Amino acid sequence: KNEVEQSPQNLTAQEGEFITINCSYSVGISALHWLQQHPGGGIVSLFMLSSGKKKHGRLIATINIQEKHSSLHITASHPRDSAVYICAVKNNYKLTFGKGTLLTVNP
Amino acid sequence: DTAVSQTPKYLVTQMGNDKSIKCEQNLGHDTMYWYKQDSKKFLKIMFSYNNKELIINETVPNRFSPKSPDKAHLNLHINSLELGDSAVYFCASSQDGSHYGYTFGSGTRLTVV
User: Do B107 and A41 touch (CB under 8 A)?
Assistant: First the structure.
């Protein structure tokens, strides 16, 4: 079993829908990261969380440390949100990654 | 200005060759990393340097040798390349204690033929 599990693996949505991607982890962490990788391959850091909730534009990330669970929400999804979303947990200097969620938003 | 720049972007080489990938960051970050993304798109840490000192060395063949001449640079040298080394290699940097996450380079797609 991976230390970081994401669900779903693949997600297809219609433009405008509310999206939720989940991440569960089984190790102690100092922070949790949500990353976005576009089809072109570049990786962008979306959020770094150690507690609570963060919001940036239409993206919201939450973390529950006790339950070892985080969610990434996208409100009013748009085709340009289509990408792979990757959850990663940080322990000391090491990032351990989930396998990613491929999101496709259709117009 | 590119924050984390990797060169080359693409590298095609024959088995047995030795090659290097360079990485530079202009963010003043203390820590730099090399990650490998395999054909299934799974990312895995290879090395981490903090202020030029090696702090993480995951289970990586010793054909891979990182070199950090200063804290703004972390290069990756690979000896005797094998077919299984074909992957995308990402350099990244971060600043401890920062509220910001990691900054990634654009990746180097290595193809060994």
Answer: yes
